[in-house]
Amino acid sequence: MSLEGSSAMEEDETEPSFGGAASAVTSAADDAGCSHVVHLLLHRFGVFDFAGFARAPDSDTARYVDEVRRGLYPAEFTGNEDDYDDVEDVDGGLVLPWTHTPAKEPSASLALLEEFLHLLIVLTTELPPPSPSSKSDHAAQARLRLRREVVHKLVSGPKTHSELAEVHHVLPNRDNDVLSEEGKKVNPDDATGAALEAVLAEVAERKVSLGGKLSADHWELRRGGWAEYDPAFFHMSLRCHQIAAEKKPAGP
């Protein structure tokens, strides 16, 4: 709610003992921005109350009413000054902000809270890298992203070449375009597949099928490739992560 935002700003504006005024202002701005996003997401998922947070207008109704009257939150002003005459009469005309939730059962709220936490993990771990300074720099970044997708495709078990080619569906189009251009230099007949083949040569071993020509060969992740496995990788399902945890080799 609005009061929480202002309270957070007041707390963040205190100058830390280890920094100067400039660092204090920067820290306050960063903290306020982060808390604002988290606050919005909590309400968007409808788990603000379920997570155990208290709404500021409930704890300091007089301050909330005063700030509404001063126009700090125009969307919350009812247009009738009489509604704010008695701040103690919450059951009367005064309506305090409230949180909507689509969940009807605690189990549904718990599922929404898990999704909220998962989204925070994705936002903090999947920040995009700096913009490439050149075409070659972009190609290098695209190869790294392709390699990461291939590794996490293989941690849940051996895959056929056609299954591994599906990683291009989750890569950005700009990455696929630059990888295709790079692949034309290696194999003009299969430009997209050339980049995938190069990654497979680095991180996987080809297992020839014993079923003859009717069965496709499979690719299996090399032992060294497990060092690149991220247990929180968001392009993998929970089931695939569970399988990967069971298959992960013990020891270094």
Description:
With 252 residues, the protein is mainly α. The chain has two domains: 2-123, no CATH class; 133-247, Arc Repressor Mutant, subunit A. The protein is 52% helix and 4% strand. It has ten helices and three strands. It has helices spanning 2-12, 21-45, 56-59, 61-69, 106-125, 135-154, 161-164, 173-186, 191-203, 238-247; strands spanning 159-160, 204-207, 218-221. Strands 1-3-2 form a three-stranded antiparallel sheet. α1 runs antiparallel to α2 and α2 (21-45) runs antiparallel to α5. It is elongated and about 80 Å long. 15% of the residues are buried. Mean pLDDT is 78; it is low at 1-29 and 88-92. Residues 1-22 are annotated as: Disordered. Ubiquitin ligase protein which is a component of the N-end rule pathway. Recognizes and binds to proteins bearing specific N-terminal residues that are destabilizing according to the N-end rule, leading to their ubiquitination and subsequent degradation. It comes from Odontella aurita. It is an enzyme of class 2 (transferase). Pathway: Protein modification; protein ubiquitination.
